[in-house]
């Protein structure tokens, strides 16, 4: 029995959940999200409480999708009401980012600057020249955009320079041992 799939979802005020055919639409103050409900999973909306129910008990895939469907629906509700954000730090001498409209220009020690324009629905804010914040209503897209930005200059293990998530620990390696 799925423990996560059986948990009741309480919908906060200002968020509206509706279902047409197999598509669930969640509207809130920050935007609208849609997801198609997996086959074998049914939804019961009772006022501000939502319960996901499995139709076929013996099918392994339906059991696996029960908790996933509940987690996706919960993430949509949190996304349209509060939103998601991921912070990044830039470490390194001369490494910095500047905001130019919606785009961000990175100086990361390469011979050229890197201009990154986030997709629609995601915003990248430069809080300080060495601190960034990725914001949006879709948890998966926020995490993917943060990972794409981190990939521009991943933290290296010798000096720790590069782009890393806030509070990420990078294990440092010892350098070469010098000649005697």
Describe this structure in words.
This protein is α+β, with helices and mostly antiparallel strands and 180 residues long. The chain has two domains: 3-81, Outer Surface Protein A, domain 3, CATH 3.90.930.12; 84-165, Ribosomal protein L6 (Outer Surface Protein A, domain 3). It is 22% helix and 38% strand. The chain has three helices and 13 strands. It has helices at residues 3-6, 60-81, 139-151; strands spanning 9-10, 16-20, 23-28, 31-36, 41-46, 49-54, 84-91, 96-100, 103-107, 114-116, 122-128, 131-136, 162-165. A four-stranded antiparallel β-sheet has the order 11-12-7-13, with helices on one face. Strands 1-6-5 form a three-stranded antiparallel β-sheet. A three-stranded antiparallel β-sheet has the order 2-3-4, covered by helices on one side. It starts with a helix and ends in a 15-residue tail after the last strand. The mean pLDDT is 90.
Comma- or semicolon-separated keywords:
alpha+beta, Outer Surface Protein A, domain 3, 2 domains, 3 helices
Q: Biggest sheet, open or closed, and with what strands and sense?
A: 4 strands, antiparallel
Class of secondary structure makeup: alpha+beta
Termini separation: 64 Å
Number of domains: 2
Order of helices and strands: HEEEEEEHEEEEEEHE
Taken as a percent bin, the fraction of beta residues is: 35-45%
The number of distinct β-strands equals: 13
CATH class of the largest domain: Alpha Beta
User: Oligomeric status of the shown chains?
Assistant: single chain
CATH fold title of the largest domain: Outer Surface Protein A, domain 3
Q: Show unreliable segments.
A: none
**pLDDT averaged residue by residue:** 90
